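Field reference: sequence -> structure
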Amino acid sequence: MADKAEAYDSSEIRVLEGLEPVRLRPGMYIGSTGYDGLHHLIKEIADNSIDEAIAGFANRVDITILKDGGVRIDDNGRGIPVDIHPKTKKSTLETVLTVLHAGGKFGDGGYKVSSGLHGVGSSVVNALSTHMIAEVYRGGKTHHIEFDTGKPTMDLKVTNGSPRESGTSITFYPDPSIFKETTTFDYNWVSSYARHQAYLTKGILITVSDERTGEHESFYFEGGIKSYVKRLNGGKELLSEDIFYVEKQVNEAIVEVALQYNDTFAEIMKPFANNVLTPDGGMHVVGFRTGLNRTINDYARKNGLLKEKEENLTGDDIKEGLTAVILVKLPDPQFEGQTKNKLGNPEVRGYVDKVMTEYFGYYLEENPAIAKKIVGKATLAARARKAARAARDNVIRKGAFEGLNLPSKLADCSSRNAEDCELFIVEGNSAAGSAKEGRDSKIQAILPLRGKVLNTERARLDKMLANAELVSLIKGLGVGIGDQFNIDGLRYHKIIFMTDADVDGSHISTLLLTFFFRYMPDIIKAGHVYLAKPPLFGLIKGTGSGRKIDYIYDEQALEETLTKKIEERKAAGTKIDEESERFKQAGYTAQQRFKGLGEMDAAQLWETTMNPENRTLVRVSIEDAEKADAIFSKLMGDQAELRKNFIQARAASVDLDDLDF
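Structure field:
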């Protein structure tokens, strides 16, 4: 041991210089080197342009996905400074793009409000790109410099003339040696990012173009977050068309809130700090809820809408059907971690509370009809909450394997290691019988459903807990529901919807997805929900012991398989009877279409749909919760016309399995 200690000296200590740490540990700076990390590069550069707009120096940002795999981001802001930096003795432009923690987000001379907390964005993108081109337009001149993997390949070149009065253009190409999963940018991601930033920055025009496909969109919302609330509530029945909106400065911060109530039972909350989404909330959300709850209760008591002996409405009562966007802008945001999921500034709580108490109070006084509807909805929610509490006490297990008995219809697995266990939710007794017989009973549990479950998009918790099918599901999962939900109790880490490959089966899957999305979204977020993909066709060859079946999962695959087999037979010199059925031309003796899971015996169901080595599962994601909410509102809400239009527009081309919730 002593010899090893003596050998451990300064030569063993590696000092990383410049942008080396970024290339060595990219995940520390952009989260991952997969799809999310790749697209985070766009965000890092574009956020700088957005910061120029927030500061009032730009009103346009253009994002272009190039044919050759790169991305160009242009703005008409002030342009990154190009003079010699006193510390680095290089141009400020080169310094910003090659030195970590160099930027206008430190000190008093840059931005009063910025989305970038750490100020490392541009240099990180440069380090993780095979090539970067930067152009700055200032004083009627163009300043041009290029880099490879973060290192300059030329001196700053200055030429007379520029395409605009001022601004910055950054073009970069992600390094495939870093982003090994993919370097292909997703237009839909870029479009979604641009739309959100346009909502959050009133008066900015953001364009998105894709040279690969010719797609192009422009986003401009004069109403800002008020327009955002209108979009989030699209397809829902509203308590009022009017949207409450306020924007006020408190000390050095700006508080902006827009809200509107609809007749659903879910809340949509979008909190932002300096244009950064904070999905875990933070002090601005705490202040908002405190002010909202106090103001509604005070109004209700003052106007006799709550009786003297009645309890105050709770936060859960008041948030039912609420759609709100909160945006705070402040000079020194204290985010928790590089991912910026939560805002920690304690003073912001008081700022937002003050604005909500004062201005939402005015709003209720000036709009008594709307105020009465809001209080009335919250009062109904309170009654339902009390009824649900009584029902819940009767049906929810207290822990994963204790408390109430598991549902009698559940054929449980023998393993108690949740990571290994799978729960198949099966449509119909016939299919459930085959599934129970064919399963691996050590790790696979079967829960049959009788008919279509309750549409939870239109039902409160108390009504849902009166539904036997859903109660069986809740008890079987072991996580509880409502304020008692705890994902740590989940008994199965794969929850698989196994329904018929027809319209009714898709409807049942959608009903189940609605339930999980509205009441147990954390299970979807954790990646535990899957759709099984049973075969639609069986192509049979031979008879008796030599009988063989090729299973086909959709009509397109069927046609491709038959065409390939026919061509192979023709190439082998086999004479083809063009008048015979397609499956016979392909060399099969029979073709079977499976109308339902019940038509397959236990062995077939195991082989095609349940065997981990052969089956196809589609994992349900919840990455774009807004899209999912809009889809569920259209498919499962009260407005039949929206549902009809949605289905008609997609009936020919979209299968439930294709919807990325």
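Note: The longest strand covers residues 129-138.
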